Amino acid sequence: MVIIATMEMYGGWITFCPEWLVMNYNLDLSTFMYKWVYLVFFNILWVFIPLYACYVGISDMNDAYAVRAKVNAAKKSK
C-alpha cells in the first residue's frame, strides 16, 4: 500500500507540476471553476488520499515491527 501510494504521488507530480511550473498556455485558469475546482481541488485529492494511505501503511508496519520485537524478546528470555 505504501509503494502504490508513493507511486501515485509521484505520478501526480510528473503529470501536473511541470504544466504548472512552465505556465502551459493550455491550462485555462481564467474561471473559478477551472482553477479551484478542477485544477486544485481534484488534484489535491490525489495528494491527500495517498498521504493518508502512506500514514496508515507505515503505522501498520511499525505495529508489526513492535510485535515482532516483543516476540523475539520473549523467545530470548526463555
From TrEMBL:
<dbReference type="InterPro" id="IPR007905">
    <property type="entry name" value="EBP"/>
</dbReference>
<feature type="domain" description="EXPERA">
    <location>
        <begin position="1"/>
        <end position="54"/>
    </location>
</feature>
<protein>
    <recommendedName>
        <fullName>EXPERA domain-containing protein</fullName>
    </recommendedName>
</protein>
<dbReference type="GO" id="GO:0047750">
    <property type="term" value="F:cholestenol delta-isomerase activity"/>
</dbReference>
<dbReference type="GO" id="GO:0016020">
    <property type="term" value="C:membrane"/>
</dbReference>
<dbReference type="Pfam" id="PF05241">
    <property type="entry name" value="EBP"/>
</dbReference>
<dbReference type="InterPro" id="IPR033118">
    <property type="entry name" value="EXPERA"/>
</dbReference>
<feature type="transmembrane region" description="Helical">
    <location>
        <begin position="36"/>
        <end position="58"/>
    </location>
</feature>
<keyword id="KW-1133">Transmembrane helix</keyword>
<dbReference type="GO" id="GO:0005783">
    <property type="term" value="C:endoplasmic reticulum"/>
</dbReference>
<keyword id="KW-0812">Transmembrane</keyword>
<dbReference type="GO" id="GO:0016125">
    <property type="term" value="P:sterol metabolic process"/>
</dbReference>
<comment type="similarity">
    <text>Belongs to the EBP family.</text>
</comment>
<keyword id="KW-0472">Membrane</keyword>
